DNA sequence: TCTGGCACTCGACTGTAGCGAGTGCCAGTC
DNA sequence: GACTGGCACTCGCTACAGTCGAGTGCCAGA
């Protein structure tokens, strides 16, 4: 069922106008604002076809047309031209990210930047532990039977855990423990540690074995098995933009979804390659977000992906602009990470 | 112009009913639901006085009465009886907090717990660095001119920073550097470090002095001077409870305020003793929160305070219940911290 | 000092009418 | 055959008038 070029142009015009004005767009307004070269009546005929095909719909009989999720999808896939960032935006990104002092800072700045540039809700996942390598393990004694395990990853993430030892341990023993653990584990992907950890225990001298066992358990349980992911969120206030018209009148479900880490991870964490992904309305698997769209991408130093980031807003969003921004920010952050 | 006991009882009844129903309360409903022992007409007279004194007001002529900020204040100060937590709530608190594996986990669990129990927005400040003591400093070389500084505080907080050395440093030198820094700084309050740091530089052997100087700069600048506070937030979805009637119709300003760390710190971070504080509506210094109330308190192991936590909701909130919950959660968290 | 009664106010709701944006369809034109 | 102008029709929105009822303030009387 072919849509000819003009019908596509009409759809594009409808999407653009609706995104800009947030009001159903009628045939007259359309020919006035766009150079379609035909009369309103013709446009009406085209609209009838587009509606039949499910790309647009009428809120009520005597109203203009509004794009459907399917319409946005077609728009994103075939009709939108990439909107290059303005130099001012590029500079803003660079300046904003340049001052970061550590990973926390990078993530926080990034998420605020994204929220500010897109005027939507932004989510940034910290570099995933599963995709990180161990750079260093540190053991800090607190008492003779307790120590703090600090793991520093090559992605800049630092995690600490309290370890309750089965028996008191002398300072020298702690040093041995640390040396052994570091020898075996530094440079290893966290997701690859499980088999190595067993070897680590087996090769420990007998007097260290109980301590090494508990240490390994903590390491595996808290850092690998329940994969400890962290997130930063910003821009929730932007949800109130568009005054309750978006999100079919209630922010409730959206705010609820945003509180669930699991949900957010699902949204932006499922990244294999650095391909940018757009999920529009119904395409979202989370029920609470059927009225929202998500633009997400992976990021990382060079070609490797260490985490995801993205933006969430009403289905009626500026897709070309948002896509361009998300892509650009992800690239800058990647470069920043590569430097460290 | 003393308010006699009955007038106070009327005020209490108005506050309780309004909080429960969220609708202006009239004189008839009042005598029906509370044993005041007088007729509606008498109550009306009392109401007139209460209104004159600024404790209640009428949204419009011909409507019931609603408490003013001043009315809530009087209620909180003199009229509310402490509402003891139910055993189920106590158990929920204990169970919820018991499973925490590290400081991050404690804070996250606490904030979710608070939000859930009070059905409002909860904020928890991480133990403040300024109030923490150094437990250990670790230096992890990344290259010959770069190392990661990790500071572990006695409150469980762990901070890391990248240090760019002015000149390459050998592994042995790094070890010396770490030893020196730890000797001088372990056990010291972060807020007390500045004078010690100068001594630390002066006493370093010449070949370590440049490195020690940059190290100290990083330490001071990022950890002490711009006091690095962290926060956790939960329950924003609860703002939509009460369907836009609270917060005079717009969540916008509230959500905006909640995004500003500085604002939140001001709300819950200004704690000297562990006294619980209630700020009602206009008493808040932040303009965006004139329609909100905040219940906050300090927490920490034993009698020392290391940070603040609190809850934010509509002025029309269940003060006795919220106060009891915040107090109880803060105490449990304090006990938990004392154990570690 | 309290109470019952009464007149009054005013927001909420309902029904009606007019307006206007927008459509679908049809006959006519290039 | 594709496009266009014209026209009747739909229907949401707004304004307006009328009614209802909750709640008040006040006053005379117990």
TrEMBL record, chains A, B:
The lineage of its organism: Bacteria, Bacillati, Actinomycetota, Actinomycetes, Micromonosporales. InterPro entries: DeoR_HTH, GAF-like_dom_sf, HrcA, HrcA_C, WH-like_DNA-bd_sf, WH_DNA-bd_sf, WHTH_transcript_rep_HrcA_IDD. This is Heat-inducible transcription repressor HrcA. Negative regulator of class I heat shock genes (grpE-dnaK-dnaJ and groELS operons). Prevents heat-shock induction of these operons. Belongs to the HrcA family. Residues 18-62 form the HTH deoR-type domain. Residues 104-323 form the Heat-inducible transcription repressor HrcA C-terminal domain. Keywords: Repressor, Stress response, Transcription, Transcription regulation. Transmembrane segments: none annotated. Gene3D superfamilies: 3.30.450.40, Heat-inducible transcription repressor hrca homolog, domain 3 (3.30.390.60), Winged helix-like DNA-binding domain superfamily/Winged helix DNA-binding domain (1.10.10.10). GO terms for molecular function: DNA binding; DNA-binding transcription factor activity. GO terms for biological process: negative regulation of DNA-templated transcription. The keyword Glycoprotein does not apply.
